[in-house]
């Protein structure tokens, strides 16, 4: 499969990919591990810039992922490098799971906030103090959504790391242009 040169992804697809990746990493770094304890101690999340940024970036990820899915339905055909069937299947599976996680993380965060009675605080002073529609939803009692959110945050970082390593493997070992097709 060496020197399998194929076309580039379109500029908007690249932008969605890299902006989302950067935002996810920043949101992960800013995600306060002791969020629940802080709120239980009466700390107002509006006074914590890390929480405000984390929640704002989560909403941005959700919005970008929605826009990205709309773009996928109307964009030019994406490059399809030649690869073995198992590689293609694994690649598709990883992309599907990453897409699922990009939606699931913000949703589990909202479920955690709503079921625990904590406000959603965003940049610009936007705040939703109560989310009774979430607290009364059937899903609210099915899990400790804060723990689910933390777990999925770890999963997306591990999977994104594996995804990045696979791209480097394609570039260094297979020399098939996969990484170059997504670089700006």
Provide an overview of this structure.
The chain is mainly α and 184 residues long. The protein has a single domain (11-182), classed as Transmembrane di-heme cytochromes, Chain C (Fumarate Reductase Cytochrome B subunit). The chain has helices spanning 11-30, 35-40, 49-74, 85-116, 132-135, 145-174, 178-182; strands at 120-121, 127-128. The protein has a two-stranded antiparallel sheet with strand order 1-2. A hairpin with a 5-residue loop joins strand 1 (120-121) and strand 2. It is elongated, with a radius of gyration of 19 Å. 21% of the residues are buried. Residues 1-5 have low confidence and may be disordered. It is a multi-pass membrane protein. Residues 9-184 form the Cytochrome b561 bacterial/Ni-hydrogenase domain. Keywords: Cell membrane, Electron transport, Heme, Iron, Membrane, Metal-binding, Transmembrane, Transmembrane helix, Transport.
Rg measurement, Å: 19 Å
CATH H-level name... which superfamily?
Transmembrane di-heme cytochromes, Chain C
Q: What is the mean predicted local confidence, pLDDT?
A: 87
- Structural class computed from helices and strand pairing: mainly alpha
Largest sheet: 2 strands, antiparallel
Helix content percent band: 55-70%
Strand content: under 5%
End-to-end CA span: 23 Å
Protein name: Cytochrome b
Cofactor: heme b
InterPro entries: Cyt_b561_bac/Ni-Hgenase, Cytochrome_b561_oxidase, Di-haem_cyt_TM
Family: Belongs to the cytochrome b561 family.
């Amino acid at each position: 499969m060496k020197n399998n040169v194929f076309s580039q992804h379109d500029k908007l697809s690249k932008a969605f990919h890299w902006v989302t990746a950067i935002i996810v990493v920043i949101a992960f770094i800013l995600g306060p591990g002791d969020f629940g304890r802080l709120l239980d101690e009466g700390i107002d999340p509006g006074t914590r810039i890390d929480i405000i940024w984390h929640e704002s970036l989560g909403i941005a990820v959700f919005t970008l992922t929605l826009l990205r899915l709309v773009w996928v339905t109307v964009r030019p055909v994406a490059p399809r490098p030649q690869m073995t069937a198992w590689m293609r299947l694994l690649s598709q599976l990883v992309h599907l799971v990453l897409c699922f996680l990009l939606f699931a993380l913000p949703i589990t965060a909202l479920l955690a906030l709503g079921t625990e009675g904590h406000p959603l605080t965003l940049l610009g002073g936007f705040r939703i103090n109560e989310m009774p529609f979430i607290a009364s939803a059937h899903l609210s009692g099915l899990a400790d959504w804060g723990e689910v959110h933390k777990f999925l945050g770890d999963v997306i970082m591990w999977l994104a790391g594996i995804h990045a390593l696979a791209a480097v493997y394609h570039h260094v070992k297979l020399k098939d242009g996969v990484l170059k097709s997504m670089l700006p």
